DNA sequence: TAAAAAATTGCGGGCCCCGCACATTTGCGG
DNA sequence: CCGCAAATGTGCGGGGCCCGCAATTTTTTA
C-alpha cells in the first residue's frame, strides 16, 4: 500500500473517530460537520469526500468491525462453519478491542452513558442498521463460498448471515440495556448457540 | 374514534402513499417534499408535522405492516407461538394486500421495477431497517407476553423477534432479487421454518 | 525535474427540517 | 345552537447538511 492510500485510511479513521468522540461527548445534534472536520484537521468540504453524511462517519467503525467478521469467516475455512462464525464474532466484539486500540477515555462511566445516548439517536440507528446490512451481504457471500451454495438462488447463506447479525445486534442491545452484569462474550456465544440450535423451544 | 383522529390518519396515509408513489415513479431524489405535500393536499410545512423526514414517510407503510404482525401475534394466543408468528407474517406479507387495497397501478411491470430501485436507495434502506427494528421491539414484547419471559432480562424474546424480522427481510430480498419465480408465501414459510428448526445444517 | 494524476479546498446553491407565531378548524359544555 | 378552549394547519425565517464545480496543492510517475 502506497503512501497515498495510507494517508487516506488515516484521514478516514481520524474523521470517524472524531465524529464518534464528539457525538458521545456532546450529543448528535450538537456536533456540526465543521467541528468534526476541525478535530480531524481537514476542511469541512473534505469531510464529505470521505463520508456522505455525518451519520455514516459515526457508523463507519461499526461497519468496519462487521466487515472483518466476514473476512475472518472466509479465511477460517479449516474449522466447521459455525465455529468459524462464533470465533470471528467473538474476536471482533468480545473484549471490545476498540477501547484498547484508541486513546483510553478518562471517564469510562460517562463514556458508556454517552454511547447509550448515541445509539438511541434515531438518525444513527438507521445508519448502524445499514452498516449491519452491508456486512450481512458480505457474510452471506462468505458462507456461500464455504458451503458451495448459490448466492443468488439459495436462501441458506442469507438466512445464516441475517441470523448472525441479528444475534450480534441482540446481544449488544442486551448488554447496553442491562448494566454489563453479564460479559458480552457470554451473550454472544449464547445468542449464536441458540440460533444454530433452533428457536422453537423457549 | 372522533373525526379529528380519522382526519389525521387520512392525512398520514395520503402523505405516505403520495411519497411512495412519486418515489417509485421518479426516483427518490427527484421528489421534493413540496411535491409530496401538494399531492396530498397539504402545505409543505404540514408534511413535517407528520413525518420527521421524507424517508420516514416512505417507510411508514412498511412500519405499519410490521407492527400489525406484532399485534396479531399478541391476539392469537390460542395457537402455538410459531404457528401464530408464521400465520401473522403470511397474512401481512403474502398476497401483498397492499397492491389490492390501493388504486391498482396501471403498469405493474414498471411499478415493481420502480420499487426495486426505491428499496436500493441507501437513504431509504436505513429507514426501512429502522422501521423493522421498531417492529422488532414490539414483537419481542408480544413474545415475552406469551411465553412469560422477562423482556428486560431474557434474551429469548429478542432473539425470536430478531430472527423473525430477519427471515422476513431475507425472504423479501430474495423475492426482489429473483424474478418472482417462487411465491413470496413459500419463501416466508421456508425461511421461518428453517429459523425455528435451527441453522446448523445447510 | 517536469508532467500527470489525485486529493484538498472554497464557493455557491438547493433542499431539508424545525421553531415560532398566527390562522383555522374541531370538539364540547352550556 | 353558540362560543370557547384545544388541537391542527400554515407562512416565515433560519440553520445546517450535502453536493457540483473549478481552482489549488500534493503525490506519483516518467
TrEMBL record, chains A, B:
Q: Which residues form the HTH tetR-type domain?
A: 9-69
Record protein name field:
TetR family transcriptional regulator
The organism's place on the tree of life at top rank: Bacteria
Transcription regulation as a keyword of this entry, yes or no, is yes
Report if keyword S-adenosyl-L-methionine is assigned.
Answer: no
Q: What InterPro entries does the record point to? A: Homeodomain-like_sf, HTH-type_TetR-like_transc_reg, HTH_TetR, MftR_C
Record's keyword terms, sorted: DNA-binding, Transcription, Transcription regulation
Cross-referenced Gene3D superfamilies? Homeodomain-like (1.10.10.60), Tetracycline Repressor, domain 2 (1.10.357.10)
Q: Which SUPFAM superfamilies match?
A: Homeodomain-like (SSF46689)
The organism encoding this protein is Streptomyces rugosispiralis
At which residues is the DNA-binding region annotated? 32-51
